[in-house]
Amino acid sequence: MNRIFSGVQPTGNLHLGNYLGAIRNFVALQDDYDCVYCVVDMHAITQWQEPGELKAHTREVTAAYLAAGIDPKRCIIFNQSQVAAHAELAWIFNCVARLGWLNRMTQFKDKAGKHREAASAGLYVYPNLMAADILLYKATHVPVGEDQKQHLELTRDIAQKFNNDFGVELFPLTEPLIFGAATRVMSLRDGKNKMSKSDPSDASRINMTDDADAIAKKIRRATTDSELLPGPDILDENRRVPEAARAARPEAYNLLGIYAALSEKSVEAVLEEFAGAQFSRFKAALTELALAVLGPIGAEMRRLRDDPGAVDAVLRDGAERARAIAEPVLEEAYRAVGYLRP
Ligand code: AMP
Ligand code: TRP
Fold first, then answer.
1. 128 lines ligand 2 (CB under 6 A)
2. Three-state DSSP string of the chain
3. Residue range 28-35: average pLDDT?
4. Does residue 292 have a pLDDT over 80?
5. What is the mean pLDDT of the chain?
6. Which pLDDT does position 316 carry in this prediction?
């Protein structure tokens, strides 16, 4: 059986990158896989979260899942801290993963920044908890954006070492699923930076809960350059944008990529459509498209914000179904390790 697991952190400001890089793909996969979608609140607290806001943000990610079209009957939707097995398996993985492996993780370096000594120990072992998330469900595939690729390689290393060390065939070697025209959406203000929840400038991202005015304004003000839009002749022999072209005009290719992803067209088709156009015409079309796709999702998220009881009920039911899968796997891991069990 093929099973999907993925997660999003409840750290506020869910944005277009989260939608195009992850959540939209979650929706598409539910027809063909047994899917488990988590709101990873335990990962969130590896960096400071205001306790009063964490709950609201947990409900917000859940609302985004539901509003985007994930069906809570077919899929399991839950928040991580309600299933204790995640913390329990993560401890074992803390003892399987090597410091040398963790030292290579670029996300830790990015997030800890210059204040490495002040980072939490949780931020450092973050990838071990992520491996526990995935392997508790023996997930075969994990849909994520580009930035999570390295963590999935570590998950495979942990699964392999655990199986080897304890002489079992317990954990699968999970494959990442990175697909869609926008696996790495960049900031609207600076095309060299990733669109991110933590960018201090709200104008750098389109939030999933932004209303029509905010979306229109952010696209209108998005950074561009002074040239006309390129045509399909820019593409290389694999029909991809060459790195050098992207590096020369990061904002232009970011907006073109967003347009392609939202319209579900190829970048080539979008380049054909807008070859030689002014940014003003392109931005007007992009605004119309973004409103058509994101408008109904944002509206449903805002509606669910006023109905926390309904959201909490989904998470409660999901946690119960998640525990039913995770607990027996944890028990197998405990027995493999040699713990004395009742
Ligand atoms: P996070 O916000 O870090 O919890 O990320 C949740 C999901 O969104 C992960 O699968 C990320 O890979 C994906 N994601 C985050 N930012 C971006 C981005 N700028 N472009 C594409 N995917 C992203
Ligand atoms: N680390 C992921 C992120 O920041 C979130 C995450 C936690 C996750 N556990 C996961 C993603 C398991 C996929 C599978 O985006």
1. no
2. CCEEEEEECCCCCCEHHHHHHHHHHHHHHCCCCEEEEEECHHHHCCCCCCHHHHHHHHHHHHHHHHHHCCCCCCCEEEEHHHCCHHHHHHHHHHHHCCHHHHHCCHHHHHHHCCCHHHCCHHHHHHHHHHHHHHHCCCCCEEECCHHHHHHHHHHHHHHHHHHHHHCCCCCCCCEEECCCCCCCCECCCCCCCECCCCCCCHHHCCECCCCHHHHHHHHHHCCCCCCCCCCHHHCCCCCCCCHHHHHHCHHHHHHHHHHHHHHCCCHHHHHHHHCCCCHHHHHHHHHHHHHHHHHHHHHHHHHHHCCHHHHHHHHHHHHHHHHHHHHHHHHHHHHHHCCCCC
3. 96
4. yes
5. 97
6. 98
What residue spans in the chain does CATH classification 3.40.50.620 cover?
3-182+308-337
Ligand 1 pocket mutation, candidates 147, 148, 189, criterion most atoms within 8 A of CB: 147
Cβ of residue 42 lying under 6 Å from some atom of ligand 2? no
Q: Is the pLDDT of residue 98 over 70?
A: yes
- Residue intervals of the chain classified under CATH 1.10.240.10 are 202-304
Please give all residues whose beta carbon lies within 6 A of any atom in ligand 1, as ranges: 8-9, 17-18, 21-22, 144-145, 147-148, 183-185, 194-195, 197
What per-residue confidence (pLDDT) applies to 1? 67
pTM value is: 0.95
Segment 259-266 shows an average pLDDT of 96
Assigned CATH for 3-182+308-337:
3.40.50.620
Ligand 1 atom with least separation from CA of 194:
19
Distance (angstroms) between ligand 2 centre and the Cα of 321 equals 20
Looking at residues 304-309, what average pLDDT do you find?
A: 97
Q: Which fold has domain 202-304?
A: Tyrosyl-Transfer RNA Synthetase (1.10.240)
Active site residues: 111, 194, 197
Residue 9 CA: which ligand 2 atom is closest?
Answer: 5
